[in-house]
Design brief:
single chain; alpha+beta; 2 domains; 18% helix; binds zinc ion
Length: 112
């Protein structure tokens, strides 16, 4: 995943609001996923806010089944992906995804 991984952890820090010392960039585990953030030696952890918000949205969408309508462009059937799924999964127009037939009624889309 791009982001802070490009930086060396010792160059990526913030001042800890709890103890006033430096909290350094780290990968933090939250709700079964890993996101970027900062970790202080005092034990305080700070989540990268945009990634944290996206993770919350993803977890909310996991339990929801959304009805969408199939359309057609020339000879191809198309599925319209709702905006909130686009944003939560950071899907981009033109991006390639994998489609897998699971059963007669189930199709799985795998984003890269
Ligand atoms: Zn601290």
């Amino acid at each position: 995943m791009p982001g802070f991984s490009k930086m060396k952890d010792n160059e990526n820090w913030m001042i800890c609001a709890r103890c006033g010392k430096k909290a350094y960039g780290a990968r933090l585990r939250i709700q079964g996923s890993e996101i970027d953030g900062w970790k202080c030696k005092c034990g305080e952890e700070y989540l990268e806010p945009i990634q944290a918000e996206r993770l919350l949205l993803q977890n909310k969408l996991k339990s929801a089944a959304l009805e969408v309508k199939l359309g057609r462009i020339r000879s191809n059937l198309i599925v319209r992906i709702p905006k909130r799924i686009e944003e939560a999964l950071e899907l981009k127009s033109g991006e390639k995804v994998m489609l897998k037939v699971i059963s007669e009624k189930k199709l799985e889309m795998i984003a890269k």
